[in-house]
Amino acid sequence: MNSPTGGRPRPNDDSELERFKDQIPIVPLATGRYGYDITDKARNDSWHKLEKGGEILIVSKKDGRDVYMNAHDTKDSGSVVDFVKTRDGLNLGQTRQQLRQYLGEGGPEQDRQQLALRPEPTRTRQAERGPDASLPEDPRERRDELLKRTLGVQPALTDKSYLRERGLSDETINAPAFQGRVFTGQNGPHKNTVFPLLNEGGFSSYEERNHNFKSQMPGPRDGIWVSHPTQGKGSAVERIVIGESPIDAMSKYQLEQPGGSGPSTMYITSSGTVSQRQVELMQKVIDRQQPKEVVLANDNDAAGVRFNLNYMNDFRAPRQNVALETGSETPEQQRGNVTWRAQRGGEYHTDLKVTFETERQREGRAAVASLQEKVDGWRKEGGEQAASLEVVRMGSDQTVARVTVTNDQLPQLRGLVQELHAQREAGMPEAQRTPPGFFKWEAALSKDYNQDLTDQQTEQRMQRAREQAGFDKGVTAQQASVSPIERPLMLEIVEQGQRQNGGGAAGQIEQDLRKAGLSILDRKQEIDQASGVRTTHLQAQYLVTDPDPQRKAISTQLEIISRAPGVTLTETEAHAQERRQLTNAPAVKPVELPERQLAESKAVFSAATKELSKGLEEQGIPLQAARLSEISRNVLERDIMPLRGLDRENLNGAIAIAEKLPALQEKGQPGPLVLAVQQADKSMHERYQTVQELGEVVCSEAL
Predict the structure, then answer these.
(1) Domain boundary residue, one of 564, 588, 612
(2) Distance separating alpha carbons of residues 202 and 204, to the nearest angstrom
(3) Which of 162, 346, 494, 691 lies 20 to 30 Å from 374 when distance is taken between CA atoms?
(4) What is the pLDDT of residues 397-407, one digit of tens each?
């Protein structure tokens, strides 16, 4: 609607506002004049879901009138008067004029007629629990209920299959800590596991999980996932654990206090990259619950360490008498004379920006000198400098420095932050100081706590199989010699340009092996700093007593990995033939290098593009998925090398779209499926170029 430019003012009485609310329905107005689309609605029209450019509105009835709320903004809600006032940026007087004009022109009836001509929305989620389901009167409960209905979220967890397949026991799933904190959502034919994100206003957003599927409601990151206390809702909290995902939180619970046997604990997660708003919400929970300690338990990788470093800067000891209502003010607290922020400094580096607040410039110089002395003391094996320091800004009242380290030196950065934290606390007023030991780091043994849980269950399964077979009762698989039911193997992974431990292709291969069901017995890495060549040796095993479907998955994964560039799989010929019989996979036939390497890289590229194609298909991008599938077939069947023209354009286009899809990202960066295609594409063309160059040499010699 266009803002009125004039007109004779009319009496601004309250009865006029009530008349607007009675006579102007929001749904026809929003669809006819503001460009919203109806994407779902209740069977009895008790609510409508409207969408426009990622914005989601839910319109319902209250006292016979339309009211709306914004799913992403708790402050954007109310009557038709609020709707117009907010969207057109008007004051109340201008809004009155606009609505008078709309009524005078017969706008409501015109928009109703246009709305009647629109096709019914195709429902992708469940509607309401029944045609006469009533809505609560309490505003917070009403908002929660409407969001659950329009998003297809049932008020209970009716499908536990995904959680069970992630290794969570029914005892954990049914624990008091997680009641009402995990639901079942209907998305078309799929039943997804839904984790609600909460803020002061109640249900703010949600995260959906399923097999090879991850989605989060679009909009600002305005909520966090919070469990109940492990001793039951309303009980005192001794300990708060902060992690990245609800699955990891539930896994840690199962690992550390099965059955809720440990101290009363509350689990909080950000469900991915952390926003400043989420940090504020977490601090409010700390203030309200008054725990004795806060455990930082993000993923055991570079991104997880950076989260923990920043939490050490952001969080404070519990403050007293902090209200949690929306818009409530929190007590001011002195921030101290030093702050820091860790961020990704490239593929293999982390930057820590340190800010010193000073009264004189010489104090800033002294702080930088002390920092430089610490950094100079960090050395890698062989005496190489492990970090660099750059002065970003130096003024009379503020000095900013940046410390850059390779990710394998993050433990050094953690030690530095702990020193800075202690320095800051010493300068704080005594009443605001964080007690010693209040913040604790508890890193997973593997990448994350769900992987730790999976590893533990794999080890327990193997141990039970050994004992049932009568081998080494009471001895772990790592301690025992190889028994007839075990199938050991060794993988060597050689990578170029890797001068640090962890991550890379070796890290991804290790994760893939674990997911397939193999147990990792040993892992060793050797790095040649001069050449940048990293060699990783993985010792793994599986059991011949594993179910056939699992052994098939293991064999398939091993075949894919063994064909990757720089990977050598070593196992007995008898064991290799045994597992290939399950999948009818042919033995790897040696061919001449580098033709063999090119053939292997084509197979890897084809497999990677197929997987990304499936991911795009699941995210509703069928055209790009089909193009990727065609490229995958053509590389193997038609030998279209190198990729150029339309094939190259289609590949780059599909990757560009996949990089922007949250479900195919990991912590805001392109996820494993995208990275696998990019790496395979690069490797395949490098091998192709090598073959071409060698072919030219052979031809010239023949002439």
Answers:
(1) 588
(2) 6
(3) 346
(4) 899 999 999 88
